[in-house]
Design a protein that fits this description.
mainly alpha, 73% helix, 0% strand
Length: 77
């Protein structure tokens, strides 16, 4: 099978391309880390495979609707 065929089947099953799905999984993990650890946004971005924090911020905001700093500012004590 061709890569395009596999990508199309993946999108039909999961509702997103493989790359979009990967970003969703990473950002979901980032949300958990932001809520439950004291890691910095930079540390989380690096641990999830983002080499550039600004790109991580863009992807996070696109998926969540708010920047990652929103979660760090609104942690419960």
């Amino acid at each position: 099978r061709t890569p395009n065929y596999l990508s199309n089947v993946f999108k039909e099953v999961f509702g997103a391309t493989p790359v979009e799905y990967l970003h969703q999984v990473r950002i979901s993990a980032a949300q958990e880390l932001l809520r439950n650890t004291n890691m910095t946004i930079q540390e989380i971005a690096e641990n999830l495979g983002y080499c550039d924090q600004s790109y991580f911020n863009v992807r996070f905001k696109k998926i969540v609707g708010r920047p990652p700093s929103h979660l760090t500012k609104h942690k419960e004590p």
